[in-house]
Amino acid sequence: MSVIAFVFARGGSKGLPGKNIKPLCGKPLLHYSIEVAQKIPEISKVYVSTDCNEIAAAAKVAGAQIIRRPAELATDTAAEWLAWQHAITYVQQQGVQFDTFVSLPATSPLRAAKDVTAALQQLQLSKADICIGVTPAARNPYFNMVKPKGADEVCLFINDQPAIKRRQDAPVAFDITTVVYAAKVNYILENNALFAGKVTSVEVPKQRAVDIDDIYDFLFAESLLTNGAALDD
Predict the structure, then answer these.
(1) What is the DSSP code string of 144-206?
(2) Which of 123, 184, 194, 220 is 20 to 30 A from 102 (CA-CA)?
(3) By C-alpha distance, which of 207, 231, 217 is closest to 19?
(4) What is the pLDDT of residues 25-57, one digit of tens each?
């Protein structure tokens, strides 16, 4: 298995402007993803795909190589899957051959190296096309998630089973995290959707599955790091 890791970091974040290089406990946010990748023996190179000069400069300081992402792949509406395909194609055109792709989004700075290693192992053992990180969901669509029903009524999001009176009796549900995505290179190049093939997963504990989208997520991650409650290599 030959593995290359990628960090996809746009410059145009609206929820928290400049978040990918915003200092978190003394270092830019995306450094956490780069440094985790550098700890894993199976990963031979780390690339940062970005449209932003400031992000590129910060990534170089941490030892990552840069992929200049086209503007059309760095908008709010652009599918990140297309950025994945672009990054893989770029690296292959540089003469670098690899069979396993890993995406480590900058927005999950609390992941541990063992989360990434577990995803690589699960991908190989399960013979799946892609492995995603998941964490136990705070809500369950069979019990306490609702959707509109008509103009002034709501109903359970999924209501195809007998009445479930306790959350513990509902089918287990997980949230997809941004902790890790590990996939076969050909699967990404030949498809256009995450769930187009066989998808497997690894479970990540809640304290390492924080996904930073706004200032409240950022402050929560900062608190966990400051109190030593998150990182566990």
Answers:
(1) T-EEE-SSS-EEES---SSPP-SGGGSPP-EEEEEEEEEEEHHHHHH-SSGGGS-EEEEE--G
(2) 220
(3) 217
(4) 999 999 999 999 999 999 999 999 999 999 999
Question: What string of DSSP letters covers the chain?
Answer: --EEEEEE--S--SSSTTGGGSEETTEEHHHHHHHHHHH-TTEEEEEEEES-HHHHHHHHHTT-EEEE--GGGSSTTS-HHHHHHHHHHHHHHTT---SEEEE--TT-TT--HHHHHHHHHHHHHHT-SEEEEEEE-SS-TTTT-EEE-SSS-EEES---SSPP-SGGGSPP-EEEEEEEEEEEHHHHHH-SSGGGS-EEEEE--GGG-----SHHHHHHHHHHHHTT-S---
- Residue written as tokens 């993803």? 33
Is the CB of residue 67 less than 8 Å from the CB of residue 48?
A: yes
Question: CA–CA separation, 16 vs 217, rounded Å?
Answer: 10
Angstrom distance (rounded) from CA 49 to CA 97: 18
Q: pLDDT for 213-226, tens place per residue?
A: 999 999 999 999 99
Provide the sign of the torsion angle of the four alpha carbons 184, 176, 194, 218, taken in this order: negative
For the whole prediction, is pTM greater than 0.85?
Answer: yes
